[in-house]
Structures are given as C-alpha cells and as structure tokens.
Design brief:
single chain; mainly alpha; MetI-like fold; flat
Amino acid sequence: MQTTLLATPMPARAAPLQTHSAFMRLRQALFSNWVSGMVSTLLLLGLLWAGVALFHWGILHAITAVDADACQAARGSGACWGVLREKGRLILLGRYPHAEHWRPALATTLLLGLVLASCSPRFWKPWLALLWALVLALFFGLMAGGLAGLPRVPTDQWGGLPLTVLLTVLSMLLAAPLALLLALGRRSGMPAIQSLCLLYVELVRGVPLISVLFMASFMFPLFMLVGQSPDVLLRVLVGISLFAAAPMAEIVRAGLQALPAGQSEAAASLGLGYWQTQLRVVLPQALGAVVPNLMNNFISLFKDTSLVTIVSLYELTGAMSLALGSDPNWRPFKLEAYAFIAAIYFAFCFAMSRYSLWIERRLHGTQA
C-alpha cells in the first residue's frame, strides 16, 4: 500500500536584510537591539567628547614652535609639539654621537627594509639567508664603527629606535629555532629529553623578564674572570632570546597537538624520516595554525624591549627619559614625548597584526 504525501505550502516570509554593505554590518554590530543601541550611543558620545577635547589640546591650541616659554604658558590648554622638534633626534637615536647620527639612521633603515622584504613571498628564496647575514654585518659595522674610517662607538651609547629594532629582530631570530626544538622535545618519546624541555619551559615562564635581564647583566659577570665578561648588549640579547623561546615553544606545541596523527602516519608510510616528516609535513601545518598566537608573542616581545632600561641600555623609552630628564626647560612636556613614542609602538604593532591577518588569509586560501 502506497502512502501519498501532500506538500503544504509555507506562508511567504520577508526578504532577509542585506548585510553585505558596510552600513548594514555597522548597524547590526552596534544597534541590533535597544540595549546594544543605548550602550553604543553612550560610547559614541564619550568618544566624540574625548575626540573634541583631544583636537583642542593637540591641534587647535598646540604650540609647534621651539619655544619653552610659550609652551609653559600653554600648559594645561595645549600640547607642546616643539619638544619633539628640539629633542626628537635624541629620543630616536639616544646617546649616539650627534655628528654620527646618519649611521644608526642608515643601519635601521637597512634592517627594517630587510624585514619588510622578508615578509613578501617573492623574497622567500635560498639567498635570503645570505642577505640577512650581509645586512646584519652592515648594521653592526655602521653602529660599532672602527672600519672604513668610521669612529668607534661602544654599545653602551647605542639607544633609541635602532636599539629597539635590533633587540626585537635578533631576539625573534634567535628564539625561533630554540622554540621549535623545545616544542619537539616536549612531544618526544624520550623521557630524558621531554623532562629537560619541560623543566626549561616551566622554569623560564615562571620568572619575569626583568629578573632575567637583571641576572644576565649583573649576576652573570660574577661567574666570569675579571675582564672576560661579554658585552652587556650581548648578555641582554641572549637573555631576551632565552626568555622568549619558552612561551613561543608552548605556542608551537599547541599547534603540533592540534595536528591529526594521521599526518605523521601518512608521512611514515611514504618512507619519510623523523626530521623530513617534521620539516615538510608537520611543522608547516602546525605553524600555520598558530600564526595569530605567534604574532601576539612577537608584539609582546617588541614592547618588552623597553625593560632593558634597568641595565643601562636606553632604547626608545629610555632615550626619551634621558633626552628630557637632563633639560629642566623641556622636562614638563613628557606627555607629548610619550604620545610620540606610543605612536611609534602602535605603528609597528599594527603593522605586525595586519601582516598576521594577511598570512592567515593566504594560508586559508592555499588550503582551500
């Protein structure tokens, strides 16, 4: 016996809202209901009030001339951007000899240019490693001097933006391979290697970076012979790299654990060895899955370089304190100098975050 199913027509429904336009997406995000609309309205009014006040202070009533007396008269009502015209070079380049400022400027431009070039897939070639070695040699040659008739400048006079960029870039380069080895060691089948990697990660993650810098700068020389202690910049660089490798290793380990075991088994069935499997199959997929977390770690490391001031290395924020702290005429205008430094930090961090999003979209597009 056959049963006949009769289809009952459904009543017509209203067409869905078109949410592909920017206006509709903004409306859905901010004014989806009356509670969200009220909160959004209050926040927008607060931002409008703050924006108007900032416009009056930073632009309308600001002093741009290099005139300390005019800046003193405008305190409380307008910003003094003249402090940047007077002390900007000292903030950016620190205690480096004034007559040689072209050297750190050129060295930093070369290093940042190489970093930007390395972010493009067009430069992901075998000769990129040689280019890195060449640019780093030029960087240290320009900064240190002593060659080609350049006056020698000791590392304790390096500072400002060049020192910040140097510590960030080299720390990332040195910490990355160590983090990969630690992450692989944590997943090793050998108990001794697994325990050593676990001990290192937990020990380093359990102390603040400022303690590591203090030990590297002041306590490590106590174990060395007199006059044989490494340069303070080298000790700080090694300390930051060892510290940064621990959280980076945990990020990589999370990516390794998220990868299905079938990937390694398929590689083994093709006859690939352990390191071939890790380098060609496992690590590319694991690192691609944790790109946002890795970039967050890089951004945190970039900002943490400001802590080297405690060991008398005056990076960007330390150079600002030196530039204004020794001049009573411009000392009251640290807020404007901090705003300038904050803009630099924001530009670098925003660029890194956008690059992370671009890498994610590229990986998803490749996987698709």
